[in-house]
Every structure is written in C-alpha cells, then in structure tokens.
Design goal:
single chain, Rossmann fold, 4 strands
Length: 148
C-alpha cells in the first residue's frame, strides 16, 4: 500500500510493479487534487536517476542542526504539502517533515534511521483522516517500534 506524493515517485512505483519477476497486489492511494497542485512537481532528472523511495526525507535546506530539531512530523500523501506550507508561513526551522511513501510493508529501517538522526526530537504521525479511520493506529505502533 503506497501513498506517493511526487510524480517521480508515482512513476517509479508503477515501474517497479511492472518490472518485478513476481506479481503482487498494489494499492495506491492518491487524491486527484495532487494532479492540480502546483507544488507537487518533480525534476526531470528524478525520473531517470532514482528508484522508488519508500521514505522521502525533509527538503528544508536552512534547518537547524540535527540535535536542535524539536519535532519529527511523519505523514504521507497530500497532507505533506499543507504542513510544508504552514511551516514555511510560520518560518519554523526546528521541525522536520518526513514523508512515508510506502505504508505496507512499513519501512522500519528507514524510519529508525530518521529517529536516530534527530535524537532530541518528538515523533508525530499526521494524517488527514480522523484517528479511527484508515491506518493511524497501525502506523502509530510501527513508528513507536522504531523509536525504541
């Protein structure tokens, strides 16, 4: 189950699915609003230089040092762009936004590396849906396992 948030990652997701030696069901959850969102763009180089990224790190270039980061916000899909715009509007530099592009199987190794990188930060999962819908409880347990 995947929630791609960039055109390049969506392309690589479909490409990976076709090129595999075995067939496995693929569930892609992506709103149509991402198609019209001006911020949702990919450089042409990302289409031929990279593969599918299960987790996309923060793109903030002028952030504070790793040990000064207060929060890690993990999200997937379109909600990333809402959080990113709000952080930009408020000029917050000590919050890192990480996009989890593949929900199942969960990228425990990559999330664990992010949590270890920002040792003093609190970890939050953010989603558009209410708490009792979709995958919030499952992902909170998965993220908690990575924090231990």
């Amino acid at each position: 189950m995947c929630l791609p948030s960039t055109p390049a990652n969506y392309f690589h997701l479909l490409r990976r699915q076709i090129r595999r030696d075995f067939r496995k069901p693929l569930i892609v959850i992506s709103p149509k609003s991402l198609l019209r969102l001006p911020a949702c763009q990919s450089d042409l180089s990302l289409f031929y230089e990279k593969d599918f990224q299960r987790l996309l790190p923060d793109e903030l270039t002028d952030a504070v040092p790793d040990d000064k980061v207060k929060r890690i916000i993990m999200c997937s899909g379109r909600v990333y762009y809402d959080i990113f715009n709000e952080r930009k509007k408020r000029e917050v530099k000590d919050v890192v936004i990480v996009r989890v592009e593949q929900i199942c199987p969960f990228p425990y190794d990559m999330v664990g590396d992010v949590v270890k990188k920002y040792t003093n930060a609190e970890v939050y999962w953010v989603q558009e849906e209410p708490f009792n819908q979709v995958y919030c409880s499952v992902l909170q347990c998965a993220v908690l396992c990575c924090c231990l």
